[in-house]
Amino acid sequence: MTTSTDSEILVAAGESVQAALDTAGEGTVVRLGEGTFAENLSVTTSGVRLVGAGSGRTVLVPGATTTATSIPPLHDAPADVVSGIALHGVRDIAIEGLTVRGFSGAGVYAHSCHGVRLTDVEADGDRVWGLYLRESADLRVESCSARGSQYAGVAFAFCAAADGVVTGTEATGSAFGVFVDNSSGVRVVGNRCHGNAAGILLLHQTYEGELPGGVRDCLVSDNDVRANTLAAGGEAPDALGAAGPPISGVGIAAIGTQRVTVVGNHVHDHRPTGETVMPGAVVLASSADWGGSDAVDNTLEWNTITGNEPFDALVATDPSAQRFRNNVIGTSEPAQLDDHAPQGTV
Fold it and tell me: Where are the coiled-coil regions (predicted)?
């Protein structure tokens, strides 16, 4: 039975979470019991916390009917897909302790929001994206997991000043584990990315009909990035990373980025299993030919990058415009990257 107080609404399995959200005011906690809830959700009130009993214990799956939402259509998806939890134009939203499983769109899709906190949220087998945060700011993805999506497990898209963090999160089985797509001010710290086509991808690229982009002032630190050997890209609409270039065997790639620091990461066991435009485990390259920008003023230091094929590190842009210091790198192109540090710094 659904029960409520002035600041908390309790919802048991089999009852309507959306009905509780529709009555929740700012500052309300909507608390879900253990069990399975068969519905998609639309959050339209700011200042709400949606709290489950823990990922794997509270599970949201598609229902027989679909809750309408005002959120714009999901990028790179058919028009009729359904996302598990949609947040549109709201502030100060927290979602904690639940699994969002098997939706045809994204697990969680936030658009035009400020102040979104995702903690212990599991996106499991959501078809297009896992946790997808777009045109938003003040974003936190903490102690989450995302697996088995066509594009990214965790994505920040067109967040010009994201002030975003993804930390303590595991991303596997997607085209990209963590994707920083035309977003700036993102910190990717202390995550585990494995079993994707690319573990962590930061990309500035111009898309027809999209907002101006750029990837600046980001930090990629202390991540364990291993064995991202899936193959993505292709023309088939249901392919992993469909319509994108072929990518496989990439650990961390920074393409067209500015003032991005990659520090203290462990990048191991990457081998392409298909065609790839990035034949290295760590790749730094320009995107100017794709309508993006040259990669400048980026820093790679204190990374351990070994046991990868064909290159541990590939720098396909001007090395003298970057900083390389104190890395352990097995093979690289060009060789001896630390020798290219500006002003003789190694």
Answer: none
